[in-house]
C-alpha cells in the first residue's frame, strides 16, 4: 500500500496478541506506549467502514508466561475487545497461521489482504506477517500500532525496544509487508 492507495474491501484487520499480560513489568521496557490507542483508533475506523476484523490470542504453554490460558493476563485488552461475530483465533506459537484455521477462513471469505497490528513487533507480529506474505496475502504492518520490548542478545548485549522495533519493521518492509503508520492507514480508509 502506498500513501496514494486505498485499502481493498477484501482486507482484514488482524489484531495479534493484545493481551493484558503484555503489561507485566517483568517484561521490561517497551516502546510505542501509544500503540493500543492507535490500535483502538484504527479499529474504530475499520469497523465504521464495515471491514472484517479478526483477533488472535496467544495461549502460552510456558509455565512462567503471563499469557497462559488460566491466567488473567491471557485476556484481550479492552481497547481491542472483539465484537459479536468477530472471530478469535487461539494459538500456542508465534505464527497466527500455525495450529489455527486462519488461512482457511481468509481464503474461504475471499480475503486477500491482511493489515496487522499487535504485540510484539519482533515476535508474533513479524512471524505472522512473514507467513502471511509467504502464503500469498498482501500484507501491511502498522508501525505505530505495534510495539517491542528490550531484548538481550546471545552475547549479553542489550538492544533497546526502539531499536528492536525499528529493525523488525525494516526487515519486513518491502520484502514481506508494506509498513505504514496509523494516520496514513486511516486516511486510506476514509
Give an overview in words:
The protein is of the alpha/beta class and 190 residues long. It has five helices and eight strands. Strand 1 (11-16), helix 1 and strand 2 form a beta-alpha-beta unit. The longest helix has 14 residues, at 35-48. The radius of gyration is 16 Å and the shape is globular. The mean pLDDT is 94.
Short description:
With 190 residues, the chain is α/β, with parallel strands linked by helices. It has helices at residues 35-48, 102-108, 121-134, 161-172, 182-189, and strands at 11-16, 53-58, 88-91, 113-119, 138-147, 151-152, 158-159, 178-180.
SSE topology sketch:
Blueprint: E1 11-16, H1 35-48, E2 53-58, E3 88-91, H2 102-108, E4 113-119, H3 121-134, E5 138-147, E6 151-152, E7 158-159, H4 161-172, E8 178-180, H5 182-189
Parallel strand pairs: 1-2, 1-4, 2-3, 4-5, 5-8
Antiparallel strand pairs: 6-7
Order the strands across the largest sheet as they lie in space: 3-2-1-4-5-8
Tally of alpha and pi helices: 5
Largest sheet: 6 strands, parallel
Structurally, how many domains make up the residues?
A: 1
Top-tier CATH class: Alpha Beta
Q: Assign the CATH topology.
A: Rossmann fold
